[in-house]
Each structure stands twice: as C-alpha cells, then as structure tokens.
Amino acid sequence: VITEPPGNPKYCHDELVELLMEGYSVPRLTFGQDWQFALVAVAPQVRDSLVISLGHSAIHVAAVLDGEVKAIRRIGFGGERAALFLQKMLAAKYPQLPSKLTLFQAQCLLQKACRVAVDYDETISKLSSAEGISKHDFVVQFPYPKVDKRLLQE
User: Fold this and answer.
1) Residue 85's pLDDT band (boundaries 50, 70, 90)?
2) Contact by Cβ (8 Å): 82, 70
3) Cα–Cα dist 36/67, whole Å
4) Of the candidates 98, 97, 61, the residue with the CA atom closest to the CA atom of residue 76
C-alpha cells in the first residue's frame, strides 16, 4: 500500500511502479490517498462527507458526494509551516530567551499544545471563562543553559 498526494504527476507514479516492480520484484501494489484510506477505515458506510487531510506540507480538502469525489483542493499550509510560524511568534514574543527555539522544539510544542475543535462554538464558549482556560492552560519551561556561578561572582 502506497499513499500519494492528490494531483501527483503521472510520471512520478509510473517511475515508482517501475522501480518497485522491476528493481525490487514487488508482486502487487495498491495506490491511494491517505484521506481515502482513512475515510474507508473510519466510516465505510458514509456516502457524503467533507474530508480534511492535514499533512506536513499541505492541507487537502475533499468533498465526497454519493461516494464519489466531487472536488478536492490543496491549501499550501501544513504542519511544517505551522511550526515555523509558532517558532517565529515565540521568538518575537520572548526575545529574552538565551537561545533560539529550534524547529524540532516548535514542532513538539505544536503537537502538544494545538487542538482541532470538533464543535467550534462549544469550544469557544468553554474557553470564554477563566475556569475553561485554566483547564487547557499549561506551562512550557524552555531549557536554559547552565551558568557557571564563578563567572557571576566576578
């Protein structure tokens, strides 16, 4: 099973098939898009849906009606750009940090802190109170380098 993005050029698909079949003697291949596999695995009986696939470099939104894909769109914003954005925002907000937040640290923070609201209105109403915010609030301790106390005394 191999997943590929929507709109993958045919020559890329064909070269991969040739490489796997001839170079590695793979007997069979199944190609598909990750959102299609997820839809079939999670809700095989659903005929109409709007599927949102959040990827590393892009978001794909697919409209499925009567079991057929009617439209699919690519948004050029994915997890990597979200982590870069978070990294830049934290650097701007906290310029006193002794070292730059790495992209890996930003990605870990993004995965830990960010959520997708299933019901946006309900989520906003819960977060509108101090009690609601305190339930979702957490502290991030940025690692500071160790300072030699002898240098501080001089």
Assistant:
1) very high
2) no
3) 11
4) 61
